Amino acid sequence: MTTTPEHQDTYQGLRDIIARLRAPDGCPWDQEQTHTTLRQNLLEECYEALEALDAGDPQSLSEELGDVLLQIVFHCQIAEENGDFTDADMFRHINEKLVRRHSHVFGDVVVKDAREVEANWEETKKKERGEKVSVLDGVAKAMPALGYGQSITFRASQAGFEWHDISGVLDKVREEIGELEAAPTKSEKEREFGDVLLSLVNVARWLDIDAESALRGANNRFYGRFTHIEAGARAQGRSVRDMSMDEKEALWEEAKRAEKH
């Protein structure tokens, strides 16, 4: 006889379900999983949560955050089975870190605004890492490239490697574009193209724009505009390839105008 797990509205309820699935008489698929096999699942669930957040859909966000938590609990269960760490170790680590890095709340450090909080946070992290370690260490290299670029340029700026104002940042973009145009080989063009992207990421940082979110937004707008062109072509019994550039441009602009309403 099957039984419904208890406490389905709590963390412990989820923990009990995963433990049951991993048990000898549980689910064969769940029993086979390892930290490595679940890697892609964790990444995909995080992206789906971001998509729900960008869409401004609270119900979907609730569901997707649950899926992210499922992945975390799955890893915790595997770690506990292997004798690596427990839930308590995980919670202790993050709680101690939060208290330590918020010395202006749990200690006697005084800050006047969020910028000073960020500076204090980075200084605390630097002490944790030790003086001989780069300030860039600790940023996960598996991050999406735009997000990684924004994180390391931010850390470099906190260490004093920074332009005096945004005009220098924009000049750097122009300089990198010029070097891209002058690059004689494909490999050099690829290198210079990367430098253009990183310089644009630095512009985003100066404007307090999240480069990854900005590109996702641009991708979504492109998707909406291009599918509008496809729909227009189908309505005429044609394909996009059969349309003139002027016709496609007209539908593109029509889609852009619709975005503003």
> What count of helical segments does DSSP give?
12
Helix content: over 70%
Please tell me how large the radius of gyration is: 25 Å
Number of E-type strands: 0
By CATH, the topology of the domain at 11-88 is Helix Hairpins
User: Can you summarize the main beta sheet?
Assistant: none
Quote the average pLDDT. 92
The CATH top-level class label of the domain at 11-88: Mainly Alpha
The H-and-E topology, N to C, reads as HHHHHHHHHHHH
End-to-end Cα distance = 56 Å
Tell me the CATH architecture of the domain at 11-88.
Answer: Orthogonal Bundle
Structural class: mainly alpha
Poorly predicted runs = none
CATH homologous superfamily name of the domain at 11-88? Answer: MazG-like
Shape: globular
Portion in beta strands: under 5%
Keywords summarizing the entry:
single chain; 261 residues; mainly alpha; Helix Hairpins; globular
Provide a brief overview of the structure.
The chain has 261 residues and is mainly α. The protein has twelve helices and no strands. The longest helix has 25 residues, at 58-82.
Write structural notes for this entry.
The protein is 71% helix and 0% strand. It has 261 residues and is an all-alpha fold. Among the domains are: 11-88, Orthogonal Bundle (Helix Hairpins); 213-259, no CATH class. Helix 9 runs antiparallel to helix 10 and helix 11 crosses helix 12 (245-259). The longest helix is centred in the first third of the chain and has 25 residues, at 58-82. It is globular and about 65 Å long. The relative contact order is 0.05. The model has no long low-confidence stretch (mean pLDDT 92).
